[in-house]
Write a structure and sequence with these properties.
By secondary structure, this protein is an all-alpha fold. It has ten helices and no strands. α6 (90-99) runs antiparallel to α10 (184-198) and α9 packs antiparallel against α10.
């Protein structure tokens, strides 16, 4: 029984379909090995299915990888949206996104794909990456602009540029952490950005003194 089947059995859920096992296994392998390092044979072994099953559902490795990348991007978008729509100030929500639990030393499952030449040069495979990063920056920019309208953040703050900085710090932090084999550089980058953002917050208005 493979890892996907083990998880389903432990949770008491019905076994995943062959197509689902193929997609999930490809997601895992792309994160671990990248696109070039993920062979059809490895996918079949991880999913516990035969070669005929793979080509019954997908045209080939590229087609399956596209389904896996789209799934990963959608999962990341859902997780980010849950944090960014939570109660709290704009700073609170952006901080929660930056400080959320991550497997830092594994890198970003979407950002990792940008390091594969074959992915970047394939418009179909690259499209979900561009869409995910574009959505994330736009969404964070919306949160920051909302904070400005509420008077929580300085009017001098540039929401779009700050959102781009958030994305860059996260992706750059992953690279630095993996290079050092230590999560400390990621944490330092995130806390440095939060300190800069905190300097742009405005204090809540003081309550008026009560008339005796």
């Amino acid at each position: 029984m493979n890892s996907t089947q083990d998880s389903a059995a432990a949770a008491g859920t019905p076994p995943a379909s062959t197509q689902e096992r193929l997609v999930v296994s490809t997601q895992e392998l792309l994160w671990e090995r990248g696109y070039v390092g993920t062979s059809p044979k490895a996918i079949l072994q991880r999913a516990g299915v035969g070669q005929g099953s793979m080509y019954h559902h997908f045209a080939g490795k590229s087609d399956l990888a596209l389904a896996a990348i789209r799934r990963t991007a959608e999962d990341m978008r859902t997780a980010a949206e849950e944090i960014l729509t939570a109660p709290g100030t704009a700073y609170d929500r952006v901080a929660a996104y930056l400080l959320r639990e991550r497997q830092v030393l594994r890198g970003c499952p979407i950002g990792r794909m940008t390091q594969d030449r074959d992915v970047v040069q394939d418009p179909d495979l690259r499209a979900p990456l561009d869409a995910m990063f574009g959505w994330l920056q736009h969404r964070i920019s919306e949160v920051l602009a909302e904070g400005q309208r509420r008077g929580e953040l300085s009017a001098a703050l540039d929401p779009a540029a700050t959102a781009a900085s958030v994305a860059a710090v996260v992706q750059g932090g992953y690279v630095l952490a993996r290079a050092a084999e230590d999560a400390a550089p990621f944490d330092a980058a995130v806390h440095g950005l939060l300190a800069l953002l905190a300097a742009q917050t405005t204090p809540p208005p003081a309550s008026e003194p009560r008339t005796p």
